[in-house]
Amino acid sequence: xxxxxxxxxxxxxxxxxxxxxxxxxxxxxxxxxxxxxxxxxxxxxxxxxxxxxxxxxxxxxxxxxxxxxxxxxxxxxxxxxxxxxxxxxxxxxxxxxxxxxxxxxxxxxxxxxxxxxxxxxxxxxxxxxxxxxxxxxxxxxxxxxxxxxxxxxxxxxxxxxxxxxxxxxxxxxxxxxxxxxxxxxxxxxxxxxxxxxxxxxxxxxxxxxxxxxxxxxxxxxxxxxxxxxxxxxxxxxxxxxxxxxxxxxxxxxxxxxxxxxxxxxxxxxxxxxxxxxxxxxxxxxxxxxxxxxxxxxxxxxxxxxxxxxxxxxxxxxxxxxxxxxx
Amino acid sequence: xxxxxxxxxxxxxxxxxxxxxxxxxxxxxxxxxxxxxxxxxxxxxxxxxxxxxxxxxxxxxxxxxxxxxxxxxxxxxxxxxxxxxxxxxxxxxxxxxxxxxxxxxxxxxxxxxxxxxxxxxxxxxxxxxxxxxxxxxxxxxxxxxxxxxxxxxxxxxxxxxxxxxxxxxxxxxxxxxxxxxxxxxxxxxxxxxxxxxxxxxxxxxxxxxxxxxxxxxxxxxxxxxxxxxxxxxxxxxxxxxxxxxxxxxxxxxxxxxxxxxxxxxxxxxxxxxxxxxxxxxxxxxxxxxxxxxxxxxxxxxxxxxxxxxxxxxxxxxxxxxxxxxx
Amino acid sequence: xxxxxxxxxxxxxxxxxxxxxxxxxxxxxxxxxxxxxxxxxxxxxxxxxxxxxxxxxxxxxxxxxxxxxxxxxxxxxxxxxxxxxxxxxxxxxxxxxxxxxxxxxxxxxxxxxxxxxxxxxxxxxxxxxxxxxxxxxxxxxxxxxxxxxxxxxxxxxxxxxxxxxxxxxxxxxxxxxxxxxxxxxxxxxxxxxxxxxxxxxxxxxxxxxxxxxxxxxxxxxxxxxxxxxxxxxxxxxxxxxxxxxxxxxxxxxxxxxxxxxxxxxxxxxxxxxxxxxxxxxxxxxxxxxxxxxxxxxxxxxxxxxxxxxxxxxxxxxxxxxxxxxxxxxxxxxxxxxxxxxxxxxxxxxxxxxxxxxxxx
Amino acid sequence: xxxxxxxxxxxxxxxxxxxxxxxxxxxxxxxxxxxxxxxxxxxxxxxxxxxxxxxxxxxxxxxxxxxxxxxxxxxxxxxxxxxxxxxxxxxxxxxxxxxxxxxxxxxxxxxxxxxxxxxxxxxxxxxxxxxxxxxxxxxxxxxxxxxxxxxxxxxxxxxxxxxxxxxxxxxxxxxxxxxxxxxxxxxxxxxxxxxxxxxxxxxxxxxxxxxxxxxxxxxxxxxxxxxxxxxxxxxxxxxxxxxxxxxxxxxxxxxxxxxxxxxxxxxxxxxxxxxxxxxxxxxxxxxxxxxxxxxxxxxxxxxxxxxxxxxxxxxxxxxxxxxxxxxxxxxxxxxxxxxxxxxxxxxxxxxxxxxxxxxx
Lengths: 326, 326, 360, 360
Ligand SMILES: Cc1ncc(C[n+]2csc(CCOP(=O)(O)OP(=O)(O)O)c2C)c(N)n1
Ligand SMILES: Cc1ncc(C[n+]2csc(CCOP(=O)(O)OP(=O)(O)O)c2C)c(N)n1
Ligand SMILES: [Mg+2]
Ligand SMILES: [Mg+2]
Fold this sequence. Notes:
The complex is a heterotetramer, with two copies of chain A and two copies of chain C. By secondary structure, chain A is an alpha/beta fold. Chain A has two domains: 3-183, Thiamin diphosphate (ThDP)-binding fold, Pyr/PP domains (Rossmann fold, 3-Layer(aba) Sandwich), CATH 3.40.50; 197-323, Rossmann fold, CATH 3.40.50. Chain A has helices spanning 6-20, 44-48, 60-72, 91-96, 101-104, 151-163, 174-177, 214-226, 244-254, 270-278, 302-308, 312-323; strands spanning 3-4, 24-28, 53-55, 76-80, 114-119, 144-146, 168-173, 182-183, 197-200, 205-209, 231-235, 238-240, 257-264, 290-294. By secondary structure, chain C is an alpha/beta fold. Chain C has two domains: 13-325, 3-Layer(aba) Sandwich (Rossmann fold); 328-360, no CATH class. In chain C, 43% of the residues lie in helices and 12% in strands. In chain C, helix 9 (229-244) links the parallel strand 7 (221-225) and strand 8 (250-255). The model of chain C has no long low-confidence stretch (mean pLDDT 97). Chains A and B meet through helix 4 and helix 10 of A and helix 4 and helix 10 of B. Strand 1 (2-15) of chain C pairs antiparallel with strand 1 of chain D, so a sheet runs across the interface. The structure holds thiamine diphosphate (2 copies) and magnesium ion (MG) (2 copies).
C-alpha cells in the first residue's frame, strides 16, 4: 500500500484504468512527455505509448469535441484541461453534445468521456488559474460532476468516472494535490458516483462541502470537538447526481447545517444543498442554514487570495451562529 | 403609447438607446438587413446605418470578444447571440474577460457590454433552440444576469442593461416574444437592475420565478384566487445581483413559497432563492419550499416539449402541497 | 535585406459538367457509362422531392422548422456516393440528400424534423452522427471519429459537411488544424451555398476561396463545382481514398447556391434579390445532370416521369408513416439520459408521468 | 475535366541581420545610422535583466510564477518600437519586453506577477490591454479595439501578440477572420518560439509556416526573423502603417526560440534536449545586434558595461519598490468589481473586512 498524494493517486487511477481497459485514452495539452503541468499523467506515455497518450494542439474546444467522437466510437477518452480557467470553452461541447448524445440518438450513440481539470485557488497561481467554476457545469442534464478531496477518494472516484458509461466532469482541487499523503489501495476499486462521504460523525451540526474546503471543514470540526461540539462532516464528492439523502439524514439528526465551498456564493452549488434543506429537509432545521463560501468577487491574485478562501475560522463562526439559535 | 409585444419592446429599447447614445452599437449574426431571426433588430440598420449595426461572421466567441475590446474603448456594444444554445461558447469570454476587466485593471478598463440572447422552450423550435441555461451565468462574479417577462419590463430592463457600466447577460424568453401585447411607454425610462417585480400581491403563498414561467405563475394565481387563496407573484427579473429582500419580505408574510423556472431543477438558479429561504428566511417558513422547474433532462424536441415545461397545473399542485402543511 | 519566399500554395477548381450539362473532356471512370449515373440522378430527385414534401408539411403545421437543400442536391449525393458503407458521415442540418443516400430513411428524417428524437436513432448507417444544429460544432466530433478509426488502424474515412458560414467558427478551425497535424482520415466538405442565413459569402470572410482555409491547417484544399455531381463525387472519392490510405485530412469547397429560404422560418426576400436567385436556377444540379443524361440518351421523358412518380410515392408513404407514428411516452426523456437513471431522478420521472402534478 | 487554379499564395520571409550580426544588404531607413539602434539594444537588455530579476525573485519566493522572454527580446522590442504611442498593444503573458518599451514600469510588471492587480492599472499606456493569460483569448479583444478605432475613423492601429501555440485556437482564428473581412487596423504578431510548454511547433500544426494562417483569413501573412530586431521592427511598422491607413489586418510570424523554461513552474529538461537549446544560443537577438553595433563601431565594451549596470540598477530599484509595496486592503476585491457595489454585496464586503467571521 504505497503512500500517495492526491495527484499521485490520480496518476495511479489513470494507469490502472489504462491497464484494465484498452479503450481508455489520455489526451490534452502537455500530458505526454511532460506528464501534465501537475504531473498527473507522469509516466503514462512511457508506459502506454503515443497511441494512448496524446499531446494535443493548444485547443480546448477541439479536445472536448474530439472526445465526443472518440467516445461515440467506443473509446473511453480521458481529457485533461490544464486549468479550470480554460475549461469554460468546453461547456458548449459538453452541454450541446457530450451530455446529450445518448439522449438525442435514443441510445444509439453514447459518450463515455471524462474531462479532468484542476480547480480552485490557494496555490499562489497566476491570474485565471484559481477558478472554482463547478456551478457552470451542475445545471447540465446528462453530465456528472465529481470533485474528490482526498487521495483515496480521488483514486476511486476517477476510476468510477472513467468506467461510467456517460460523460463526467472531474474537478481536482489544486491545493489538495500535494497537501497530504495517505496510504492508497491501488487495487482497482472504484467508489460510487452517487454517494456523499461522511468523513466524521457528529450529532450537533452538519458541515457539508467539497473539494478544497474539506480540510477546513475537518479542522473546524476538530476545534469544535475540543469545545464539546460534535460536527458531522460530509464530503459531497459527486455534486451531480446529488446524494441529497445522506445530507438530509445528517441534518435530520443535527438540525443545523453549514454548507462550505470555495466558489462564489450566489448561484453556487451550495445553494442546491440549501434548497434541499429548505424543501424536504425543512422540518429538521433548528437554525438557518449557513453558507461559507468564496465571496461574489473575482478570485484575487495571490496577495489577497487567502482573504477570499473560506477558512476554518469562517466555518467556526458560522457554526457558532447556527448553534446560537434555540 | 403603442401596443407592443416583448420582441417589439426590445426593438424599441434598442432604437431608443442608439438614439440617445452614440456609443451604442448592435452586432451579431443577421442583425442587419434581416433584422435578427426574431426581428428584434428590425429597422435598426436602415435607421442607424452599417457603422452602428454590424452583421458579424458566424463566430460567437469572436462576437463576445469583440464586444470586450469595443467596450474597453468606450463603446457600448449590444451583441445578439441567435439562440441560447449558441451562447455557451461565449462563457469563456464573459467569465475570463468581460466580467473581470474592471477588477483586473482596478478600474482602468471597463466593459459596459450587453449580450442578448433568446432562451427557453415552448415554440416548437429545432434541436438546441430551447435551452434555459441561466445557471451557467449566475455564478460569475462581475456579471449581471437579467431576464424580462413582459414587454414593458423587457423595454425598461434592456435600457438599464445598456446603460449599465458593467457587463450584462440579457435573456429573452422566446415563448414570450409574441405571446402578449401591452401598451408600452417608449419614453426612455429604465427599470432598476437590482429589484424584483411583484406582479400580484397576496398573503397566502409566494410564487417566485422568472422568464417564460411567469405567465404560468400568474395563471395559477388566478385559479387560486377563484378558490380563495391569494398568491403573491414575484418576477425576479434580475437574477444577479439578486434582490433577496423582496422575496424574503414576501415569504415573511406568506410563510410559503413555490419557486418556478424553466431550467432544470438541480443546480438551477431557483436553488439560490431556496437557499435564501433556508438561511435568512428560515424562521418565516411554514412549509417546505417547493420548486417547480424543468426536469433534469435534455429539453425534449417539440413533440414532448410541453411535458417538460412547468405548467400552471404543476404550480398549483405544488401550492397545494405547501398549503397542506400546518 | 533578404526576402525569400518560404511557402507557396494554390487552390485548384474542378468541374466536369458545364452548367448546361455539357461534359468538359473525359469523365472519371465511374461516369464512363452514363447509365451508371442514373442512381445519382435519382438520389438528387429523391432529395428534392423529400424537401418539397417537408416544406409542405411544415407549411401545414405538421413538421417543425425545416432547412431545404433545394439546388444543393449534388453536394450531398455526390459526397455520399463517394463514401464506402463503413465510412462515417458527420452531417450538418442541410444534409438530408447525403443522409438519404446513406440509408437514413425519409421516415426517420421526418421524425427528427417533426420533433421526435427517434429520428436520430436511424437503423441504417449506425455509426453516422445525427445532424448538428450548432454550426461547425460537429467538426471536432468528426476529427475524434477519424482518430478512432486511425487508432484502430482501419482503412475507413470520415466525411464531415459544413456550410460556408461554418468556416468562420473556431471549432471548425481547431478541428481542421488538429486533423492536419495528426494526419487523420477526415474530409471536410464545405457546402458553400453563398449564404449563411442573411449573410452573404463575401461578408463571411475576406478569403478569396473557402478552400484556402485548408492552408492554415497544412492540408490540401480545393474547390469543386458543387452543382456538378460528377465532380463532387470524384473529388470527394479521391480525398476519402487518400484519407483511408493514411494520406491525412483535406478540405473541399463545393460551390453551389441556396435556391430556397434558409429554413421555413426564414424569408429570404428581406435580404436578397429574387433576380440573384433566378440567375442561379440556371446550372442547378438536377437539370444539369438530366441534360447530360438526355444528351447521352441515357434518360427519357418517360424515365423522368416514372422517376418523379416513384420518388413522390416513396416520400408520400414515408410522410404517412411519420404522421401515423405516435409520440414517445413521457418517460422517454428520462430513459435515454443516462445508461441507468440515477436514483436522484426517479421521483422526477414519476412526477412527469403523473403529468407533473405528483410529488417530486 | 477542367482543373484550373483559382487562387495563388506565397509566404515571404525577411531578415536584415544574419545570426552573427552581419547585415544583409541595405537596412531600412530607421536603421541607417547604427547609433539610432542603440535604444533598441538597451530595450532588449532591459527586458533581459528584468526577466533575470523576476526569475530570481520567484526562486526566492518573492514573486509568483513568471514567464521569461529570454532569447525573444527582439520580438517585443522590435514590435513595440514600431508602434506609435497611440497605437494599442494587446499583449500575451510573455510580452514584458514590449510592455516595458511601451511605458509599463518594471514595478507594475512585478506587482502583477507578484499577485497584485494594481500591476495591470499601469500609468503609462492607458489603453493597452493587460496581459492575457488564457492563450489567444485576447485576439478578439484586439479586433474589437481595432473596430473601435476604425469606427471613430482614427488613424491608429492595434498590435496583438500571441505565441505559436495560440495559433491552434479557435478564438485566434475567429478574430483573424473577422478582422480580415472587416478590414480592421489590426496586426497580429505570432511570437513563434518553437514551443508551447512541452509541445513543439511541429506537433502544433501541419502548416509549413504559421504565417500562412493568414491565408485562411484572406489577409497578408509573412515570416520574419524574430531574433533580428531590425527586421521585426521594419515589418511590424509596415503592417501597422497599412493598418492605420485603411489597408486592413495582417499577420506576422516572428521566428525565434524560447531559451528558458516555459515558466518558473516548468522544467523543460523533461521534454527537450539541452543540445537543442544550446544551438539556439547562437543567433540570439541581444548578441546579434551587439555584434552589428560593435562592427559598426557604435558600441564598445564600456558602453556595454554601463548599459548593463544602468539597467540592473533600474530593475533593482524597481524590485525594491515592489517589495516595499504593501498589499491592497481586503476590500479591494469588492471595490473594483462593479462601478458601484450592488447592495446585495455590501454584507459580504463587511464580512471580508471582519476577517470573514462577521455576519454575512
Ligand atoms: C453556433 C451557431 N450559431 C448560430 C446558429 C444559427 N444558425 C443556424 S444556420 C445558420 C447559418 C449557417 O450558414 P452556413 O454555415 O452557410 O450553412 P447553410 O445554412 O447555408 O447551409 C445560423 C447562423 C447555429 N445553428 N449555430
Ligand atoms: C486557453 C489556454 N489553454 C491553456 C493554457 C495553459 N498554457 C499557458 S501557456 C501555454 C503554452 C502557450 O504556448 P505559446 O502560445 O506557444 O506561447 P509561449 O508560452 O510559447 O510564449 C499553455 C498551454 C492557457 N494559458 N490558456
Ligand atoms: Mg451557407
Ligand atoms: Mg511558444
